[in-house]
Amino acid sequence: MDKRSLKEKFPNLYKELEGGENRVTINSVQTDTENPERTFCDKLHNFNPTVVDFIRRCDTEEEAEMIIAFLEKRCEIAPKRASQLRAQLKMKGVRSFGSKKEENYYFKQGGY
User: Fold this and answer.
1) What is the DSSP string of 7-69?
2) Which terminus, N or C, of the chain has the lesser number of Cβ atoms within 10 Å?
């Protein structure tokens, strides 16, 4: 169907398509029609958050300190790394690790 025919038959659809708004990004193409879940591309698949990812969920420096202490106690971060994080937290604040990751951040990033 050419543009002219589309515009005549479906003026609102034509307007949406030409307007550039309401675009959807396609991150993958399904090639296995027999088993579509097998070919699903998920950019958060096997994602393991780091200490910085957890800190970016915090509202206050106290919350960030609790995260650092917890991960250090569980030996998930080394004492030297914990010290570096605490120094950055004290000198530059909690937002120095990045913008706050709001509720449903990962659902939005994963395309859900």
Assistant:
1) HHH-HHHHHHHHH--S----------SSSGGGG---TTTT----HHHHHTT-SSHHHHHHHHH
2) N
Q: What is the pLDDT of residues 28-78, one digit of tens each?
A: 666 666 665 554 556 666 778 899 999 999 999 999 999 999 999 999 999
d(CA 29, CA 35): 13
Provide the 10 A C-beta neighbour count for residue 94.
19
Unique residue bearing structure tokens 């088993």 = 35
Cα 56 to Cα 89: distance, rounded to the nearest angstrom = 11
- From 72, 67, 70, select the one nearest 83 (Cα to Cα): 72
Token digits for 99? 């913008």
Write the CA distances from 25 to 22, 82, 91, integer angstroms. Answer: 10, 38, 39
